[in-house]
Amino acid sequence: MGQQYDIWENLMRLRPEFYKSFWQTAVMLGISVPVSVLIGGLLGVWLFTTNRNQIFANRRVNHFLGFTIDFIRAFPFVILMIVMMKPTRMIMGTTFGPVAASISLSVAAMFYFARLVEQNLAEVPKGVVEAALAMGAKPSTIITKVLLNEARAGLVRSIAILIIATLGTSAAAGLIGGGGVGDLGIRYGHQRYMADVLWTVVALLSALVVCIQSVGNYLAARLDKR
């Protein structure tokens, strides 16, 4: 009982730190996820539509986009954060804080999401696109009303995967002063040998991941027309 009381007392004492860390994580996700969905989505559509036999087929552009996306994705996130420190300082005036960390998170996430979008669009039946072309649909209509509309269930699942991946990546943001729940677990759970804090952070993050994936699956099932 005494040990349990000590654990509970430690967690209650660190409650302000938990609140602060959750807010920092929310800020990082709130900035990086929308940015990566918007820019990464555009990159993914561009990558897919410039592929062979697509509406904007262009071998050179497609190879350049594919190489660039894969090159950035190959960077370990810790290395990417270091590379992005100077651009981040130029944009934000600092490299510390959750907002500054969101820039590196956004760069990593947008190229990751671009490949997810490409895969989702590749699953759209070719016959649907061919039918739209036969009816004289404009390229913009094919992209918005056919490709994105037909792939919407998969895109929702991909956004859920993106949020979860970014949540995991945000734990490394503490290395540049970004803070967050992962950083709390590292500082107190690992560096100060407070196992109760570490396992609490793990439990909270696991619950959050399950909730995000469940919501994503539910929405995707509602949007799936098959």
Structural account:
- The protein is mostly helical and 226 residues long.
- It has one domain: MetI-like fold (Orthogonal Bundle).
- It contains eleven helices and no strands.
- It has helices at 2-13, 15-49, 59-73, 77-83, 85-92, 98-122, 126-134, 139-150, 152-169, 181-190, 195-223.
- α5 packs across α6.
- The chain is elongated, with a radius of gyration of 21 Å.
Please tell me the CATH architecture by its name.
Answer: Orthogonal Bundle
User: CATH topology, what is it called?
Assistant: MetI-like fold
Q: Could you name the ranges where pLDDT drops below 50 across 5 or more consecutive residues?
A: none
CATH superfamily: MetI-like
Describe the global form.
Answer: elongated
Estimate the mean pLDDT confidence: 87
Helix content estimate: over 70%
Rg over CA atoms, rounded to whole Å, is 21 Å
Q: Strand pairing plus helix content: what structural class? A: mainly alpha
Number of strands: 0
Number of domains: 1
InterPro entries: AA_ABC_Transporter_Permease (IPR051322), MetI-like (IPR000515), MetI-like_sf (IPR035906)
Keywords: ATP-binding, Cell membrane, Membrane, Nucleotide-binding, Transmembrane, Transmembrane helix, Transport
Subcellular location: Cell membrane
Family: Belongs to the binding-protein-dependent transport system permease family.
Which helices and strands appear, and what pairs or packs with what?
Layout: H1 2-13, H2 15-49, H3 59-73, H4 77-83, H5 85-92, H6 98-122, H7 126-134, H8 139-150, H9 152-169, H10 181-190, H11 195-223
Helix pairs in contact: 2-3, 2-6, 2-9, 2-10, 3-6, 5-6, 6-9, 7-8, 9-11, 10-11
